[in-house]
């Protein structure tokens, strides 16, 4: 099938889409939830149920191009991912016209799978151990509407973060640098919603001028990251935010100019996990999700990573006292 035929297939009209997803384990049984949204001149009614697998049915009040059903589903699964910590695998995808399966359903399902971006395949470290809660306990029409707005405001930042959390082959220090960089636009989004939120005061780092990114990162971790980085904050939020900035800067400078303290390989794995957790927590907070509903689970995740292979202990005991170290523990 050439591109022209594929694009034409995406414009075929249907009245409902039914998708089944699965994860490595069994998902907790939940009562079905229903909500609705309006997009592209149509009303979409959504039903999500969960018994082992997750089933999503999206129906419209009129015949609508199938590509719009797919777009609504992708917004739903990206919202679910904030709670799940991973994207679930697609098992089946069926398009209906009324009560009847369309004659082109199989062809479009195959096309949908073939065109599915790699960001929808989660890396191993994002698996079920990072689940903050069952999305079906939280999702509503109001939450979904707020999510669509926040996603629009984030623009390319959110896809960039999802790629850093995906199974796409990337060096782990690059993943971490991308996640650190995402905190800058996230700061602007927080400030847009809370005008009194501001950068931390400037400090001196030897002969260097304090960077605005470090001040933004410090402000973010002190407001949203106290449960994610408790030991790092206790040690020194200024030094910790400085290490994150120098680690991010490695993607922008040549080797001779990067002789500064930065995260090593194992530390990058650790902070890839913890910064992605912070990112999800901030987005959920901006969406109005009650933190008390998942705080205990987040602390369990943080405890797991803080005890992982002794990496955090090494980082706190050696890295911050050796400013000539180029990232050891590699």
Could you describe the 3D structure shown?
- α6 (172-193) packs parallel to α10 (265-286).
- This protein folds into two domains: 3-135, no CATH class; 170-321, no CATH class.
- A hairpin with a 2-residue loop joins β2 (27-39) and β3.
- Strands 2-3-1-4-5 form a five-stranded antiparallel β-sheet.
- The chain is 47% helix and 18% strand.
- By secondary structure, it is an alpha+beta fold.
- The chain has helices at residues 3-10, 66-84, 105-115, 141-154, 157-164, 172-193, 212-224, 230-235, 237-249, 265-286, 295-306, 311-318; strands at residues 13-22, 27-39, 42-65, 89-97, 100-101.
- It is elongated.
**Radius of gyration, CA atoms, in whole angstroms:** 22 Å
How many beta-strand segments?
Answer: 5
Bulk shape: elongated
Q: What are the low-pLDDT stretches, counting only 5+ consecutive residues below 50?
A: 322-330
In terms of DSSP E residues, the strand content is: 15-25%
Distance between the termini: 46 Å
Number of domains: 2
Helices and strands, in N-to-C order?
HEEEHEEHHHHHHHHHH
Indicate the mean pLDDT: 89
- Major sheet strand order: 2-3-1-4-5
Q: Helix count?
A: 12
Look at the helices and sheets and give the structural class.
Answer: alpha+beta
Query: Helicity level, as a percent range?
Result: 40-55%
Largest sheet: 5 strands, antiparallel
């Amino acid at each position: 099938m050439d591109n022209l035929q594929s694009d034409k297939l995406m414009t075929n009209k249907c009245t409902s889409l039914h998708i089944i997803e699965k994860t490595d384990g069994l998902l907790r049984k939940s009562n079905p939830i229903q909500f609705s949204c309006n997009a592209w001149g149509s009303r979409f009614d959504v039903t999500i149920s969960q018994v082992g697998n997750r089933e999503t049915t999206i129906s419209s009040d009129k015949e609508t191009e199938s590509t719009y059903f797919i777009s609504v589903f992708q917004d739903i699964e990206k919202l679910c991912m904030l709670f799940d910590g991973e994207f679930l695998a697609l098992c089946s995808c069926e398009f209906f016209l009324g009560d009847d399966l369309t004659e082109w359903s199989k062809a479009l399902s195959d096309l949908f799978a073939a065109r599915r971006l790699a960001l929808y395949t989660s890396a191993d470290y994002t698996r079920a151990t990072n689940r903050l809660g069952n999305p079906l306990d939280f999702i509503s029409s109001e939450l979904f509407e707020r999510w669509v707005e926040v996603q629009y405001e984030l623009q390319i930042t959110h896809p960039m973060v999802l790629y850093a959390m995906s199974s796409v082959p990337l060096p782990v220090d690059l993943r971490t640098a991308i996640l650190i960089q995402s905190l800058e636009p996230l700061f602007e989004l927080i400030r847009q919603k809370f005008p009194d939120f501001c950068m931390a005061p400037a400090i001196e780092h030897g002969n260097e001028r304090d960077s605005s990114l470090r001040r933004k990162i410090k402000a973010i971790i002190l407001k949203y990251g106290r449960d994610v980085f408790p030991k790092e904050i206790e040690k020194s939020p200024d030094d910790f935010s400085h290490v994150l900035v120098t680690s991010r800067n490695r993607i922008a400078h040549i080797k001779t100019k990067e002789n500064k303290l930065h995260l090593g390989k194992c530390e990058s794995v650790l902070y890839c996990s913890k910064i992605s957790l912070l990112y999800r927590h901030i987005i959920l907070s901006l969406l109005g999700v009650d933190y008390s509903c998942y705080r205990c689970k987040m602390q369990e995740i943080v405890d797991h990573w803080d005890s992982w292979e002794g990496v955090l202990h090494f980082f706190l005991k050696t890295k911050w006292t050796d400013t000539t170290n180029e990232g050891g523990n590699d």
